[in-house]
Amino acid sequence: MAETEGKTLELIELNAKIREAKGKGAARKLRAANAIPAIVYGVKEDPVMLSLDTVEFIKIIRDHGSTGLFFNVKIEGGVEKAVMLKEMQMDAFGLEHLHVDLHEVDMGHSVTVTVPIETTGDCLGVKEGGMLQLIRRELDVFCKPKNMPSSIVLDISELNVGDSIHVEDINLGDAVEIPHDVNFTVLTIVPPTTDESEVSEEDEDLLEEAAPAGE
Hints:
- The strands form 3 sheets. A 6-stranded mixed β-barrel has the order 2-4-3-7-6-5. A 4-stranded mixed β-sheet has the order 1-11-8-10, with no helix packed on it. Strands 9-13-12 form a 3-stranded antiparallel β-sheet, with helices on one face.
- It folds into 2 domains: 8-104, CATH 2.40.240.10; 111-210, RNA Polymerase Alpha Subunit, Chain A, domain 2 (Beta Complex), CATH 2.170.120.
- The protein starts with a strand and ends in a 5-residue tail after the last helix.
- The chain contains 4 helices and 13 strands.
- The protein has 215 residues and is an alpha+beta fold.
- Helices cover 16% and strands 40% of the residues.
- It has helices at 24-32, 54-64, 124-127, 201-210, and strands at 2-5, 11-18, 35-41, 48-53, 70-75, 79-90, 97-104, 111-120, 131-134, 138-143, 151-155, 164-166, 185-190.
């Protein structure tokens, strides 16, 4: 019921410079100079403080998104590190990058990354008037970087109204694990409604069961 895309890991080239100064004042000066403060947390080494070119980094995010990104960071002086994007800190309006956290990866060890969900196929239930409800738009997977899928593609062509795909229905092969404690719903095909009051108790139970914990 599920396919994966992008089996070959892409290491995106990212240039960086060493930064010596730290603190809020130094970070503000960097951003004013069109650079983003960053840090690489090493596997067996101390963290390294870097600065990234704002234009280059924003272009990468626009081209590749911000989920499951792995970089080959080229640091001035000839040092290169394979890293994954762990966190981007943005301003209150989501317009300016304040700080970027990168984690060095050992290509031979598994890591947890977040992968987007996509669907494919002409759904039978949707043709009958049902509606596709995507409960989870992304899932965490645990695998070696080389096995990381760029997306998880779910075939919904055979689903009827009332059918669902749960996490345990998704098989990504032996090399990729989806960590989970309960067999939660990833997507479901719900009956069409014109008014919230027309939703039956059975449908309400389905939606309540499908909703992620804590939402």
